[in-house]
């Protein structure tokens, strides 16, 4: 799990992965402080943070939780090496353990991403997520809403 000592390095990953966003450290710090609604994890290589993932519980703490893969980022120098896939596959069981602590189980996972983001294939392959809707011009371009049902 991400902790406060990871914020500086994780912020560098955020800044590189999302150049249109600002205040990287503040963004990650507020997500970290919102535990257990937000669950954040880092990926390290050679004692350096090269990626992170943030999961968010949607619409309250429920017996059957709907999670959002809120944000997944991998340093551009480390993309294409399976780090994003590993972050999803290794953090999801930990998220399920956290849900179980509140007598909850995972129902669905939602992901929003740019319509032109090649990561859609990653979400489909790792989670079984399918595009359910396209939202025109939401942030910087069209955005797709993907849902992985009955995970």
TrEMBL record:
SUPFAM superfamilies: Acyl-CoA N-acyltransferases (Nat). The keyword Ribosomal protein applies. It holds the Pfam family Acetyltransf_1. One of its GO terms (molecular function) is acyltransferase activity, transferring groups other than amino-acyl groups. One of its GO terms (cellular component) is ribosome. PROSITE patterns: GNAT. Keywords: Ribonucleoprotein, Ribosomal protein. This is Ribosomal protein S18 acetylase RimI-like enzyme.
